[in-house]
Design goal:
The protein has 3 domains: 104 residues, no CATH class; 112 residues, Ribonuclease H-like superfamily/Ribonuclease H (Nucleotidyltransferase, domain 5, 2-Layer Sandwich), CATH 3.30.420; 149 residues, no CATH class. The protein is 51% helix and 18% strand. It contains 16 helices and 10 strands. The strands form 2 sheets. Strands 1, 2, 3, 4 and 5 form a 5-stranded mixed beta sheet that branches. Strands 8-7-6-9-10 form a 5-stranded mixed beta sheet, with helices on both faces. A hairpin with a 3-residue loop joins strand 6 and strand 7. Helix 7 runs antiparallel to helix 13. Bound molecules: zinc ion.
């Protein structure tokens, strides 16, 4: 059969797979719906009778049933592989389906198909992958999960780490979190697991092992108590640095509290004013709706100004930037709260000795503020002052944690429809863990 090599090349199979015959299946009349390659593992290459989980040669158990695997498309047509899936009895794993050279154990897709899915999933959009490859999004989740499992078994991302950052990212409502560890030197995400808290973080240190844990010099994290206590217990030699990104996030929370207080006060005032006006000129009717009062307008601006106040000023659109100016000019309290946040950002831009000096001034000033949320923020900053100063001294990047956090939140939305947090972790690691994915058939 001279054209076997053509089919072999099309399906990305090597000589460990024997193609027995090729069938064309019609769907609608006159239209080939599927190309099916009927295959088996090569006996000559010793590929038969191996445990699907460990690859050990094992005695046959039964003939199993006929199974099919989706492969890459053959031109415009779907291509499938079909083969018997006999079971073997492995000394270690018991009765299990025999290994096949063209697919991962338990997968319904071939290795080349998996590789194509993973490559596309990290480079393009959800709808592109789904439509181009004609697969469900949850299937993409299962594929990248097993691709990452194989890659992570081959590479050791935890090797040689000295400075790490710990972060937690919410990935679902009801307080579902991923704990993420990044390497400050390489900028990579080196570890991620579902869960939050000391127990989850402990599994990271278990995997890192005592020697590599002892080699850690700096750990940056937000001020969560469980992180501090776990790091102090497991890596007492490492300098604990407060993550600037999280400290600035506290400040934006304080601003938002002030914004809500201002909005409520304005609204109450506007409502009273309106009620008085209505009493004087009569209630508005559906035919003759009275325009909003200026104060009602302003209250609405406060209600909608959240994003303008919370984003970094450099990232604002022109509209948001104007909203910000208007709002802070209209409210001295909000103006003050906003200034405290911006000054805190300057502390982290300054770093080193200068950073410490400005931090000191900031604390003194914030301690005298009449705004209760700023007082509270000040107390939190003072409580972890030592680790903020460590962060200023050792200059661990704010940008890395911030940008990783932002990207992971994007992947979290993209992962909507995946069935497990492991698939989300695979998406994160394939994107941010630094492996280079290649398309099947390319080197
Ligand atoms: Zn086995």
């Amino acid at each position: 059969m001279p054209d076997v090599s053509v089919w072999r090349a099309m399906a990305g199979l090597d000589d460990r797979t024997v193609i027995e015959r090729v069938a064309f299946e019609e769907g609608r009349p006159g239209r080939t719906e599927r190309v099916v390659l009927h295959v088996r593992p090569s006996r000559r290459k010793g590929e038969h009778d191996r445990c699907g989980r460990c690859g050990r040669r094992s005695p046959g158990y039964d003939g199993g049933r006929r199974r099919e695997w989706r492969s890459v498309d053959c031109g415009l047509t779907q291509m499938w592989l079909a083969a018997d899936a006999p079971r073997v009895r492995c000394a270690e794993h018991g009765v299990t389906v025999a290994r096949v050279p063209w697919a991962r154990h338990g997968a319904g897709h071939t290795l080349v198909f998996d590789a194509q899915v993973a490559w596309l999933a990290v480079r393009t959009s959800k709808s592109t992958v789904r439509e181009l490859l004609r697969i469900a999004w949850k299937t993409v989740g299962s594929v990248i999960d097993r691709v990452w499992a194989d890659i992570s078994a081959e590479i050791d991302l935890l090797d040689g780490v000295r400075k790490i950052g710990i972060d937690e990212v919410s990935y679902k409502k009801n307080h579902r979190y991923l704990t993420i560890v990044v390497d400050h030197d390489t900028g990579r995400v080196i570890w991620a697991a579902p869960g939050l808290g000391a127990a989850t973080l402990s599994t990271f240190f278990d995997e890192l092992g005592p020697e590599r844990t002892a080699a850690l010099t700096h750990v940056s994290a937000d001020a969560a108590h469980w992180i501090a206590s776990t790091v102090t217990q497991r890596a007492p030699q490492a300098i604990l640095c407060a993550d600037p990104f999280h400290i600035v996030a506290w400040a934006t929370d304080a601003i938002d509290t002030v914004r809500r207080q201002e909005w409520r006060a304005l609204k109450a005032l506007a409502d009273t004013e309106r009620a008085e006006q209505d009493r004087r000129v009569g209630r508005p009717t559906a035919d003759d709706p009275k325009p909003e009062t200026p104060r009602q307008d302003l209250a609405r601006e406060f209600k909608n100004a959240r994003y303008s106040l919370l984003k970094n000023p450099d990232n604002l659109t022109q509209d948001q930037s104007l909203t910000l100016k208007w709002i802070t000019a209209s409210s001295p309290r909000l103006h003050e709260a906003y200034a405290f946040k911006e000054k805190l950002r300057i502390v982290f831009q300054a770093r080193g000795k200068q950073g410490k000096r400005i931090l000191d001034a900031w604390i003194k000033e914030a301690g005298r503020s009449t705004l209760e949320p700023i007082q509270k923020l000040c107390k939190s900053v003072v409580r972890i002052r030592a680790s903020i100063e460590a962060s200023l001294e050792h200059g661990l990047s704010q940008g890395l944690i911030e940008s990783t956090n932002t990207k992971i939140r994007l992947f979290t939305r993209m992962a909507f429809g995946f069935h497990t947090p492991q698939a989300l972790i695979a998406l994160v690691m394939l994107n941010l863990g630094g492996p280079t994915l290649t398309l099947p058939g390319r080197t």
